From TrEMBL:
Annotated protein name in UniProt: Pectate lyase
A Pfam family it matches: Pectate_lyase_4
Family recorded in the similarity comment: Belongs to the polysaccharide lyase 1 family.
GO molecular function: metal ion binding; pectate lyase activity
PANTHER family (alphabetical): PECTATE LYASE 18-RELATED, PECTATE LYASE 21-RELATED
Repeat recorded as keyword: no
InterPro entries: AmbAllergen (IPR018082), Pec_lyase (IPR002022), Pectin_lyas_fold (IPR012334), Pectin_lyase_fold/virulence (IPR011050), PEL (IPR045032)
Record field: catalytic activity: Eliminative cleavage of (1->4)-alpha-D-galacturonan to give oligosaccharides with 4-deoxy-alpha-D-galact-4-enuronosyl groups at their non-reducing ends
Keyword ATP-binding: no
Assigned EC number: 4.2.2.2
Length: 396
């Protein structure tokens, strides 16, 4: 595709995005409805996004929900969630009891010991009283309904594995203090409180967060710390937030040197300031995302992370002080040897990426998790990021 044509499409996407320019109050405002987007039918619906092409074209997606578990890419591709368990239908959005979870609620489903594929039987806005601790081998699948978690503590993955979170709108999350909650072990446990993240990943692995809309939380939208690894964050729509994603607990916490995270096909939208992501120590493949402006920086880090940026579109704002994509929390003498590269990225409206360290591909093997697609693909796929308004009997 000629560069001038791609640029015109990106400018059009920037100016007339299908997404709301204000924080959405429900999913229908956050994503285009089925009636306003083209019908997806067979081969016509395929966009080149390998995740979506794996499942979204199937009009029988509701009957074949668990096929989603075979569609992940990147470092979190082995996350199977509740694929090998039964279906749990959440029917109750109101009676959240942290100490004695009520059957039919999301909390009751999330703390069960066995694998479960969790779905919902109607539109819900779930306000949690305390953070939701999710057990291993769980999928939270919001397809088919407008499912929101909002206005209270939100989701925590603590020392678990194989979790998929899909098609949920999570917003306005709040911190909580120490509280007694039912731990997924299970046993009563002091939770230790939560920071107000939408999704906090703590000492966990094989995690996939896909097609969620995340906005306006007290702390981060997605934080991964304390040795978490094998994570894919894909197809999400993020907006109206300051510190978007933190990867790594602290400069001194060396267990995060093994962290591997893929950040792919996300739409970093309006009202975002910094940390898309901010990385420490580990290996980060940032691939085929669209960034629409940032107030401070897009990608940052400290403690010598390896950052492999490929096939992204960075559209800077008109603020002349907000053009640089990257920020290092260190002196030049230290960070000039960190391996940060930009390969096949498109820079629009004066955006620029400051590379450092090695240029050779061999230096980025541990920060490579999938084949980057051309930026021309993103003019089609970006509009489908975030929670989908899926309808039974139709491709999603």
């Amino acid at each position: 595709m000629p560069t001038f044509y791609l640029l015109s499409l990106l400018v059009c996407l920037h100016a007339t995005s299908t997404f709301s320019r204000l924080a959405p109050t429900n999913m229908s405002e956050a994503v285009p409805t089925h009636s306003t987007r083209r019908e997806l039918d067979g081969e016509q619906c395929r966009t080149g996004n390998p995740i979506d092409d794996c499942w979204r074209c199937d009009p029988e997606w509701e009957a074949n929900r668990k096929k989603l578990a075979d569609c992940a890419v990147g470092f979190g591709k082995d996350a199977i969630g509740g694929r090998d368990g039964g279906i749990y239908v959440v029917t109750d959005s109101d009676n959240d009891d942290p100490m004695a979870p009520t059957p039919g609620t999301l909390r009751h489903a999330a703390v069960q010991a066995e694998p479960l594929w969790i779905i919902f039987d109607h539109d819900m806005v779930i306000r949690l009283r305390e953070q939701l601790l999710v057990n291993s081998y769980k999928t939270i699948d919001g397809r088919g309904h407008d499912i929101q978690i909002a206005n209270g503590p939100c989701i925590t993955l603590r020392n678990v594995s194989n979790v998929i979170i899909h098609n949920i709108y999570i917003h306005d999350c709040l911190p909580s203090g120490d509280a007694m909650v039912w731990n997924p072990l299970p046993q009563f446990s002091i939770s230790g409180g939560s920071d107000g993240d939408a999704i906090s990943i703590f000492g966990s692995r094989d995690v996939w967060i896909d097609h969620c809309t995340l906005a306006n939380c007290y702390d981060g939208l997605i934080d991964a710390t304390y040795g978490s690894t094998s994570i894919t964050i894909s197809n999400n729509y993020m907006l109206h937030h300051n510190e978007v994603m933190l990867m790594g607990h602290s400069d001194e916490f060396l267990d995060d040197k093994n962290m591997q995270v893929t950040i792919a096909f996300n739409y970093f939208g309006e009202g975002l300031i910094q940390r898309m992501p901010r990385c420490r120590h580990g290996y980060f493949h940032i691939v085929n995302n669209v960034y629409i402006g940032w107030e401070m920086y897009a990608i940052g880090g400290s403690a010598n992370p390896t950052i492999n940026s490929q096939g992204n579109v960075f559209i800077a704002s008109d603020n002349r002080y907000s053009k640089e994509v990257t920020k290092r929390e260190s002196s030049f003498d230290e960070w000039r040897n960190w391996n940060w590269r930009s390969e096949g990225d498109m820079m629009v409206n004066g955006a620029f990426f400051t590379p450092s360290g090695e240029e050779a591909s061999e230096s980025y093997i541990r920060a490579s998790s999938m084949v980057a697609r051309s930026t021309s693909l993103l003019t089609t796929t970006a509009q489908y990021a975030g929670a989908r308004s899926c309808r039974k009997g139709y491709a999603c």
